Amino acid sequence: MLYAVKMDVAIPRDLDPEVRAETVAREKAYSHELQRGGEWVHIWRMVGQYSNLSIFDVASNERLHEILWNLPLFPYMTMEITPLAQHPSDIAVES
Ligand SMILES: O=C(O)CC1=CCC(=O)O1
What we know:
Elements: E1 2-9, H1 17-36, E2 40-45, E3 51-57, H2 61-69, E4 77-84
Antiparallel strand pairs: 1-3, 1-4, 2-3
Ligand LWBT4IAB is lined by residues 7, 9, 27-28, 31, 52, 73.
């Protein structure tokens, strides 16, 4: 199941800089692990924003929830989640 997830990050300005750096480093490592495992298919920076647009390919709604809930930056994020379906004009799937 494919999902587009827009993540807007808003880390409080007064967060301890060490906690901030450590949380961002854990977020990166967690993201890399899921990318290597094939569930986090794409991550794009949204120009001019502390936001990303990501594509996930996961087995279920529950699995996506688990992944997102465990993001180290989850407490500082707002997300918009869009389930994706094949488009009939996609030449990659046209028969
Ligand atoms: O910087 C972001 O957009 C938040 C984020 C998600 C995965 C990652 O490494 O950073």
